[in-house]
Amino acid sequence: MAARFQALAPWLAALWWGSLTTLGALVAPLLFVHLPSPALAGGMAAKLFTAQTWLGTGCGLFLLLLSRSGQGQPTTGRLQSAMMFIMLGVLLALLSEFAVAPRIVSRDNLRLWHSVGSAMFALQWLCAGVTFWKMTRTQG
To answer: How many CB atoms lie under 10 A from the CB of residue 70?
Structure first.
């Protein structure tokens, strides 16, 4: 049974990294191009980034649980090597949501907090990407 759940690990990593990539490189920019005002686009982007936070947090936490439950499984070693990146990615997602996003929404020093949020999003994208790479690389 544990081996069946272990097979989910690369898919979870792919979902996390792919959703960050799609939101950051495609969806959010298109909102600002096609919606009638930047305020409307920003409000919709904020909702999508919140959804992304929960998706990424869920994927990361499930990956951490899989690393604890599958002792002796081949995937477990790859999960163990990605542990730091998984934890950092989840932490970045939660900090972005609860520390940075409220400041952006309230327009408190918007340029600074938008830059901080963008940097944290990029770092989370890197963490998810490294996790995906570690989960899919072949041993040898």
So the answer is: 21
Token pair of 20, please? 């960050």
pLDDT at residue 1 greater than cutoff 60: no
Distance (Å, whole) CA 60 – CA 55: 9
Question: Cα–Cα distance between 139 and 133 in angstroms, integer?
Answer: 12
Q: CA-CA distances (angstroms) from residue 79 to 12, 30, 49, 57, 123?
A: 11, 34, 26, 16, 19
- Overall pTM surpassing 0.85 (yes/no): yes
Whose tokens are 């990407």? That residue is 129
Structure confidence by residue, pLDDT tens digits, 34-93: 999 999 999 999 999 999 999 999 999 999 998 887 665 656 678 888 999 999 999 999
How would you label 80-89 residue by residue, b for 16+ Cβ within 10 Å and e otherwise? Answer: eebeebbebb
Question: DSSP characters for the chain?
Answer: -HHHHHTTHHHHHHHHHHHHHHIIIIIHHHHHHHSS-HHHHHHHHHHHHHHHHHHHHHHHHHHHHHHHH-TT-HHHHHHHHHHHHHHHHHHHHHHIIIIIHHHHHTTTTHHHHHHHHHHHHHHHHHHHHHHHHHHHPPP-
